[in-house]
Design brief:
259 residues, Rossmann fold, seven-stranded mixed sheet, alpha/beta, 7 strands, 36% helix, globular, binds S-adenosylmethionine
Protein backbone atom coordinates (compact mmCIF):
# COMPACT_ATOMS: atom_id res chain seq x y z
CA UNK A 1 0.00 0.00 0.00
CA UNK A 2 1.44 3.42 -0.91
CA UNK A 3 0.88 5.52 2.19
CA UNK A 4 1.84 9.12 2.86
CA UNK A 5 1.77 10.35 6.44
CA UNK A 6 1.96 13.91 7.71
CA UNK A 7 4.87 14.68 10.06
CA UNK A 8 2.90 14.21 13.29
CA UNK A 9 0.64 11.51 11.85
CA UNK A 10 3.73 9.37 11.14
CA UNK A 11 4.46 9.22 14.88
CA UNK A 12 1.39 6.97 15.24
CA UNK A 13 3.57 4.23 13.69
CA UNK A 14 5.90 4.38 16.73
CA UNK A 15 3.24 3.34 19.22
CA UNK A 16 1.88 0.82 16.74
CA UNK A 17 5.33 -0.79 16.32
CA UNK A 18 5.93 -0.94 20.06
CA UNK A 19 2.51 -2.37 20.93
CA UNK A 20 2.97 -5.06 18.28
CA UNK A 21 6.46 -6.03 19.43
CA UNK A 22 5.45 -6.08 23.11
CA UNK A 23 2.43 -8.27 22.29
CA UNK A 24 4.77 -10.79 20.60
CA UNK A 25 6.87 -11.21 23.76
CA UNK A 26 6.23 -14.27 25.93
CA UNK A 27 5.98 -12.07 29.04
CA UNK A 28 4.00 -9.26 27.34
CA UNK A 29 2.82 -6.55 29.75
CA UNK A 30 0.20 -5.32 27.27
CA UNK A 31 -1.60 -7.25 24.58
CA UNK A 32 -2.66 -5.55 21.36
CA UNK A 33 -3.01 -8.24 18.67
CA UNK A 34 -4.58 -5.69 16.32
CA UNK A 35 -1.27 -3.76 16.16
CA UNK A 36 0.61 -6.56 14.34
CA UNK A 37 -2.38 -7.12 12.05
CA UNK A 38 -2.35 -3.39 11.11
CA UNK A 39 1.40 -3.34 10.36
CA UNK A 40 1.02 -6.36 8.10
CA UNK A 41 -2.07 -4.96 6.37
CA UNK A 42 -0.44 -1.55 5.74
CA UNK A 43 2.87 -3.12 4.74
CA UNK A 44 4.85 -0.42 6.58
CA UNK A 45 8.43 -0.87 7.78
CA UNK A 46 8.41 0.03 11.48
CA UNK A 47 11.73 -1.60 12.43
CA UNK A 48 13.38 1.72 13.38
CA UNK A 49 10.54 2.71 15.71
CA UNK A 50 11.17 0.36 18.64
CA UNK A 51 14.19 1.46 20.73
CA UNK A 52 14.37 0.58 24.45
CA UNK A 53 13.32 3.82 26.16
CA UNK A 54 10.43 4.54 23.80
CA UNK A 55 9.34 0.92 24.09
CA UNK A 56 9.24 1.09 27.86
CA UNK A 57 7.56 4.52 27.78
CA UNK A 58 4.78 3.39 25.43
CA UNK A 59 4.16 0.22 27.45
CA UNK A 60 4.02 2.33 30.63
CA UNK A 61 1.67 4.90 29.18
CA UNK A 62 -0.61 2.27 27.65
CA UNK A 63 -1.01 0.69 31.10
CA UNK A 64 -1.39 4.03 32.89
CA UNK A 65 -3.99 5.52 30.50
CA UNK A 66 -5.94 2.25 30.50
CA UNK A 67 -6.02 2.00 34.29
CA UNK A 68 -6.97 5.65 34.76
CA UNK A 69 -9.76 5.34 32.19
CA UNK A 70 -11.06 2.16 33.83
CA UNK A 71 -11.07 3.95 37.19
CA UNK A 72 -13.13 6.84 35.77
CA UNK A 73 -15.45 4.45 33.95
CA UNK A 74 -16.33 2.73 37.23
CA UNK A 75 -17.67 6.12 38.28
CA UNK A 76 -19.17 7.14 34.92
CA UNK A 77 -19.96 3.83 33.15
CA UNK A 78 -22.09 5.49 30.48
CA UNK A 79 -19.66 8.27 29.63
CA UNK A 80 -18.90 9.34 26.10
CA UNK A 81 -15.18 8.65 25.58
CA UNK A 82 -13.17 10.41 22.89
CA UNK A 83 -9.71 9.26 21.87
CA UNK A 84 -8.56 12.53 20.29
CA UNK A 85 -5.55 11.92 18.04
CA UNK A 86 -6.28 8.18 18.20
CA UNK A 87 -3.80 7.14 15.48
CA UNK A 88 -4.05 3.34 15.31
CA UNK A 89 -4.73 2.87 19.00
CA UNK A 90 -7.40 0.36 20.06
CA UNK A 91 -8.10 1.59 23.57
CA UNK A 92 -11.83 0.87 23.22
CA UNK A 93 -11.09 -2.88 23.37
CA UNK A 94 -9.02 -2.42 26.53
CA UNK A 95 -11.66 -0.59 28.54
CA UNK A 96 -15.07 -1.40 27.04
CA UNK A 97 -17.64 -2.03 29.78
CA UNK A 98 -20.59 -2.65 27.46
CA UNK A 99 -22.18 0.71 28.32
CA UNK A 100 -19.85 3.48 27.22
CA UNK A 101 -19.94 5.21 23.85
CA UNK A 102 -16.58 5.66 22.14
CA UNK A 103 -15.28 7.94 19.37
CA UNK A 104 -11.89 7.54 17.71
CA UNK A 105 -11.08 11.01 16.35
CA UNK A 106 -8.08 12.09 14.28
CA UNK A 107 -7.20 14.28 11.29
CA UNK A 108 -9.02 13.22 8.08
CA UNK A 109 -5.95 11.73 6.37
CA UNK A 110 -5.18 9.63 9.46
CA UNK A 111 -8.77 8.44 9.81
CA UNK A 112 -8.72 7.50 6.11
CA UNK A 113 -5.78 5.15 6.78
CA UNK A 114 -7.39 3.91 10.00
CA UNK A 115 -10.51 2.98 8.04
CA UNK A 116 -8.39 0.61 5.94
CA UNK A 117 -7.68 -1.48 9.04
CA UNK A 118 -10.63 -0.86 11.38
CA UNK A 119 -14.39 -0.88 10.96
CA UNK A 120 -16.80 1.00 13.16
CA UNK A 121 -18.05 -1.26 15.95
CA UNK A 122 -21.13 -1.15 18.13
CA UNK A 123 -20.68 1.96 20.35
CA UNK A 124 -17.26 2.67 18.75
CA UNK A 125 -17.18 5.11 15.84
CA UNK A 126 -14.36 6.75 13.89
CA UNK A 127 -14.66 10.44 13.11
CA UNK A 128 -12.59 13.09 11.28
CA UNK A 129 -11.70 15.84 13.71
CA UNK A 130 -9.06 18.39 14.53
CA UNK A 131 -7.95 19.00 18.12
CA UNK A 132 -7.52 22.66 17.16
CA UNK A 133 -10.99 23.20 15.69
CA UNK A 134 -14.16 22.05 17.44
CA UNK A 135 -16.46 21.75 14.36
CA UNK A 136 -16.58 17.93 14.71
CA UNK A 137 -17.80 18.09 18.31
CA UNK A 138 -21.32 18.94 17.05
CA UNK A 139 -21.56 15.35 15.84
CA UNK A 140 -20.85 13.93 19.31
CA UNK A 141 -24.05 12.98 21.18
CA UNK A 142 -25.03 14.80 24.38
CA UNK A 143 -23.95 13.02 27.55
CA UNK A 144 -23.64 13.70 31.28
CA UNK A 145 -19.91 13.03 31.21
CA UNK A 146 -17.17 13.11 28.60
CA UNK A 147 -13.81 11.40 29.05
CA UNK A 148 -11.25 12.81 26.62
CA UNK A 149 -7.99 10.94 26.02
CA UNK A 150 -5.02 12.67 24.38
CA UNK A 151 -2.12 10.26 24.39
CA UNK A 152 0.96 11.32 22.43
CA UNK A 153 -0.75 14.33 20.84
CA UNK A 154 -0.31 17.53 22.88
CA UNK A 155 3.49 17.03 22.83
CA UNK A 156 3.53 18.25 19.23
CA UNK A 157 1.58 21.46 19.87
CA UNK A 158 2.90 24.97 20.51
CA UNK A 159 1.73 26.73 23.68
CA UNK A 160 -0.80 28.66 21.59
CA UNK A 161 -2.14 25.43 20.09
CA UNK A 162 -2.39 23.80 23.53
CA UNK A 163 -4.50 26.78 24.64
CA UNK A 164 -6.69 26.54 21.52
CA UNK A 165 -7.26 22.85 22.18
CA UNK A 166 -8.07 23.26 25.89
CA UNK A 167 -10.46 26.16 25.19
CA UNK A 168 -12.13 24.13 22.42
CA UNK A 169 -12.71 21.15 24.76
CA UNK A 170 -14.19 23.28 27.56
CA UNK A 171 -16.36 25.24 25.08
CA UNK A 172 -17.64 22.08 23.37
CA UNK A 173 -18.37 19.76 26.31
CA UNK A 174 -20.20 20.96 29.44
CA UNK A 175 -18.39 18.53 31.80
CA UNK A 176 -15.45 16.30 31.26
CA UNK A 177 -12.18 14.78 32.25
CA UNK A 178 -9.05 15.20 30.18
CA UNK A 179 -6.39 12.47 30.38
CA UNK A 180 -3.39 13.96 28.66
CA UNK A 181 0.24 13.11 28.02
CA UNK A 182 2.64 15.91 28.96
CA UNK A 183 6.34 16.30 28.24
CA UNK A 184 9.12 18.35 29.76
CA UNK A 185 10.86 21.54 28.59
CA UNK A 186 13.97 19.32 28.34
CA UNK A 187 12.32 17.23 25.62
CA UNK A 188 11.05 20.36 23.87
CA UNK A 189 14.66 21.53 23.66
CA UNK A 190 16.42 18.23 22.97
CA UNK A 191 13.66 16.37 21.12
CA UNK A 192 15.78 15.94 18.00
CA UNK A 193 17.68 13.27 19.99
CA UNK A 194 14.55 11.34 21.00
CA UNK A 195 15.28 7.66 20.28
CA UNK A 196 12.16 7.07 18.12
CA UNK A 197 10.73 10.47 17.13
CA UNK A 198 14.08 11.46 15.52
CA UNK A 199 13.26 8.93 12.79
CA UNK A 200 10.25 11.06 11.79
CA UNK A 201 9.97 14.71 10.69
CA UNK A 202 7.88 15.63 13.75
CA UNK A 203 9.29 17.97 16.40
CA UNK A 204 8.19 18.51 19.98
CA UNK A 205 6.18 21.55 20.97
CA UNK A 206 5.72 23.34 24.28
CA UNK A 207 6.95 21.36 27.28
CA UNK A 208 5.83 21.89 30.88
CA UNK A 209 7.37 21.27 34.28
CA UNK A 210 3.90 20.76 35.73
CA UNK A 211 0.41 20.28 34.36
CA UNK A 212 -0.62 23.21 36.55
CA UNK A 213 0.79 25.39 33.75
CA UNK A 214 -2.35 24.46 31.79
CA UNK A 215 -4.55 26.27 34.32
CA UNK A 216 -3.38 29.69 33.16
CA UNK A 217 -4.43 28.79 29.60
CA UNK A 218 -7.89 27.49 30.52
CA UNK A 219 -9.21 28.61 33.94
CA UNK A 220 -12.24 26.27 33.76
CA UNK A 221 -9.87 23.31 34.23
CA UNK A 222 -9.20 21.75 37.63
CA UNK A 223 -5.92 19.94 38.09
CA UNK A 224 -6.50 16.49 39.62
CA UNK A 225 -3.33 14.43 39.29
CA UNK A 226 -0.08 13.95 37.46
CA UNK A 227 2.20 10.91 37.35
CA UNK A 228 5.53 10.34 35.60
CA UNK A 229 5.85 7.29 33.34
CA UNK A 230 8.90 6.52 35.50
CA UNK A 231 6.50 5.22 38.16
CA UNK A 232 5.53 2.38 35.84
CA UNK A 233 8.82 1.98 33.95
CA UNK A 234 10.92 1.47 37.07
CA UNK A 235 8.95 -1.68 37.96
CA UNK A 236 10.32 -3.71 35.08
CA UNK A 237 14.07 -3.33 34.53
CA UNK A 238 17.30 -1.98 35.97
CA UNK A 239 17.57 0.39 32.99
CA UNK A 240 14.05 1.59 33.77
CA UNK A 241 15.01 2.14 37.42
CA UNK A 242 18.19 3.99 36.39
CA UNK A 243 16.31 6.22 33.95
CA UNK A 244 13.80 7.03 36.70
CA UNK A 245 16.76 8.35 38.75
CA UNK A 246 18.72 10.12 36.04
CA UNK A 247 15.72 11.28 34.05
CA UNK A 248 13.61 12.04 37.11
CA UNK A 249 12.08 15.23 35.74
CA UNK A 250 12.38 14.64 32.02
CA UNK A 251 10.13 11.67 31.36
CA UNK A 252 6.60 12.19 30.05
CA UNK A 253 3.64 12.22 32.44
CA UNK A 254 -0.06 11.42 32.49
CA UNK A 255 -2.03 14.36 33.86
CA UNK A 256 -5.75 14.34 34.65
CA UNK A 257 -7.93 17.47 34.60
CA UNK A 258 -11.64 17.98 34.97
CA UNK A 259 -14.05 20.80 34.23
C1 LIG B 1 2.07 9.83 18.40
S1 LIG B 1 0.56 9.63 17.55
C2 LIG B 1 -0.41 8.97 18.90
C3 LIG B 1 -1.50 8.11 18.44
C4 LIG B 1 -2.29 7.43 19.55
N1 LIG B 1 -2.89 8.40 20.45
C5 LIG B 1 -1.44 6.46 20.31
O1 LIG B 1 -1.12 6.71 21.48
O2 LIG B 1 -1.09 5.42 19.73
C6 LIG B 1 -0.06 11.30 17.34
C7 LIG B 1 -1.43 11.35 16.71
O3 LIG B 1 -1.95 12.69 16.84
C8 LIG B 1 -2.67 13.00 15.68
N2 LIG B 1 -2.80 14.47 15.54
C9 LIG B 1 -1.84 15.37 15.29
N3 LIG B 1 -2.35 16.61 15.23
C10 LIG B 1 -3.69 16.48 15.44
C11 LIG B 1 -4.77 17.40 15.47
N4 LIG B 1 -4.58 18.72 15.28
N5 LIG B 1 -6.00 16.94 15.70
C12 LIG B 1 -6.22 15.61 15.88
N6 LIG B 1 -5.23 14.68 15.86
C13 LIG B 1 -3.98 15.11 15.64
C14 LIG B 1 -1.84 12.37 14.58
O4 LIG B 1 -2.55 12.26 13.37
C15 LIG B 1 -1.45 11.04 15.23
O5 LIG B 1 -2.40 10.05 14.95
Amino acid sequence: MDLKFGDIQETALITLAIRASETARSNARIRDPKAKEIIDALGVDVSKFDPFLSHEGVVARTIMFRDELKRLLRRYPEAVCINLGCGFDDKFSQVDNGKLTWFDVDLPDQIAVRRKVYEDRERCTMMDGDALDGAWTKNIPRADMYLIVMEGVMEYFSKKQVKTCLNMLCDSFPHGYLLVELHSPFLEKHGSHHDAVRHTNASFGWGTKSGREYLALEPRLKYLSEKSYNEEMKKYSIRGKLFALIGKNINNRLAVFRW
